[in-house]
Amino acid sequence: EVEVAESGGGLVQPGGSLRLSCEASGFTFKSAWMSWVRQAPGKGLEWVGRIKGTSDGGSAIYSAPVKGRFTISRDDSKATVYLQMNSLKTDDTAFYFCVAAVLKPYWGQGTLVTVSS
Amino acid sequence: SYVLTQPPSVSVAPGKTARINCEGDKIGKKSVDWYQQKPGQAPVLVVHDNEDRPAGIPERFSGSNSGNTATLTIGGVEAGDEADYYCQVWDSGPDPWVFGGGTRVTVL
Description:
Order of helices and strands of chain A: EEEEEEEEEEE
Number of strands of chain A: 11
Radius of gyration of chain B: 13 Å
Number of helices of chain B: 0
Largest interface: A-B, 17 and 22 residues
Oligomer: heterodimer
Helix content of chain A: under 10%
């Protein structure tokens, strides 16, 4: 059974940093493309970025609002993908979901990031 | 960038059929996923690749896609179907995942 679980959310001040983790199981992780999607309170879903499977080169791309501030990386030995968030803004406050693309998308339950002073 | 347009809300009586449209340029040439999201929960995939239902999703949920409109149809609507529904496509533009703005389904 495919499972995806995010962790690392919390309260951070504007300008601060936070690293989210997403641990996955139930599939061949190294070949899976992994994405992050966020949802601000009361708003719709917004794609943040994705990283290719290692066998496909492992490169990452990002949405315009987070490009240059967020970095996605992966550790295949731990079946974990990370979202490093720097220079955080109040607009980054949201639930962050990790999604595994394995034939069809599998979502985690999300972790809340609150950027506030 | 690619844009998907959904109606903000749809209201339907119990037992009737709800149809939610998702409009996009030549969306019929793309693969569309549909998600159901209830308050405080993560989105749940209810239709994959235009018309495939994941395991555990009732047959009442079906999808179609042609021309400039994709449609999620919920037959025999139940109170438990009250939720926000989002369409999503893969795109070759700068944002590979594009979501519609979401449709709130209210069961009268």
